[in-house]
Amino acid sequence: MRSGQHISLLVFAQRNKAAADDPTRIQLRAGRPMHPQSRYHPSTASNLTKRVSLGQTENRMERQGTANVNLAVEPTNRGAISDAHCTVRVAAVQMAGRVGELAWNLQQAETLASEALQKGARIVALPEFFTTPCFMHPRLPEGIVGVENPAKEMLARLARQHGAYVGGSMLMRRGEDVYNAYCLAGPDGRIQIHDKDQPTMWENAYYVAGADDGVVATDYGDAGLATCWELIRWRTVRRFAGRVRYAITGNQWWTIAENWLGADTMFASVKQYNRYLSENAANEFARHLGVPVLHAGHSGPFEGRCLLAPGTDASVRYVSEFVGRTQIVDAHGHTVAGRDASEGPGIVMGDIQIDDVARPAPETNRFWIPDLTLTHVANWYHQNAVGRSYYRRKRRAQVHHAAG
Q1: Are 143 and 108 in contact (CB under 8 A)?
Q2: Does residue 26 lie in a domain region?
Q3: Which terminus has fewer CB within 10 Å in the chain: N or C?
């Protein structure tokens, strides 16, 4: 879709009001429908927004933005028990971070991770962007770290001290670009890194796509590292299929701006479905792979800006909150322990059974695992375009300044 073909979100919502009488329309195509008693079941919504199924065309278009970068993986030895079936105590951390305040966020992350480790967790997942929440804000660049940084040092120190695995993602500058780097520290202090395969919407303003497969070696067998909307793309399932025994993931999932006209009326059903997607992404991901999933997230309100068009810094105020659920999910997609975003920062712990590698991926040409609303897709294309434009302009300015 070219930028000139973007259609107003208002038009999308108005076109699809007639869908409200069909309570079977909104469900995860490859997953199970929402329970009729769920507070997010479509029968509770007044205005359903039509969904689209995107396959090879979208996959081809969006992969054009993927950078060719060297794999950012620091070597580690295969674990001695990688072929064994075992039960492992694990934890996931839910944070309430502050944009750009690296020291404050690291202190919160370390406090919560330490609590989980002291309670016996052998694997601890921190959220995506645990060093700073990622949204359009003038202070965000203060949370971008270099290759050697205090966040990696903290992960390695905790992992060595407790003989465990501790990981989370951070905005990391390598060379002239920034990546959303998920760093997993092992008991020996060495770190393996996965760069998120594609930024989501306004995230494009701050980092570029990675090119590794996200599969890393641990003492419990190979693990898959993934963040946020990687969990709802079939290509992530294909990367992990037949290879990983469990997945360590995190997200930063937001919702429609509450200060925008129609947020609680015209777009009420979109907000409900978006919340449903955020709370069930890890469950569906586990079901498709047939392996356990650790999933860490963010909580709390935030206020930033939303860019309006490519080639300009013009923006509008965006007041919203993080949604989703931090949880431990078993290989069948059932929640072992969970904490809703509304409950604020804290940890969840549980035991997972690590058994066989992920099942083969199904044959499909779809890009997304769930069906997305037209509102989601419109924002995806529009914000991807304006975010990439912003990143290129800022990067050119930095290079020009450095050349001096």
Answers
A1: no
A2: no
A3: C
Domain that holds residue 356: 44-403
Q: Is 278 within 8 Å of 270 (Cβ atoms)? A: no
The CATH number assigned to the domain holding 384 equals 3.60.110.10
Q: Decide if 39 is inside a domain.
A: no
Instruction: Count structural domains, the chain.
Output: 1
Residue closest to 174 by CA, chosen among 252, 251, 73, 102:
73
Cβ proximity of 169 and 196 under 8 Å = yes
**Which tens digit of pLDDT belongs to each residue from 47-81?**
333 444 333 334 333 333 333 333 343 433 334 45
What does the pLDDT look like over 83-134, one tens digit per residue? 568 999 999 999 999 999 999 999 999 999 999 999 999 999 999 999 999 9
Is residue 320 a part of any domain in this protein?
Answer: yes
Burial of 177 (0-12, 13-18, 19+ CB in 10 A): middle
CA distances from 236 to 118, 232, 281, 329, 367 (A): 32, 8, 13, 17, 10
Residue 372 has a CB neighbour count (10 Å cut-off) of 22
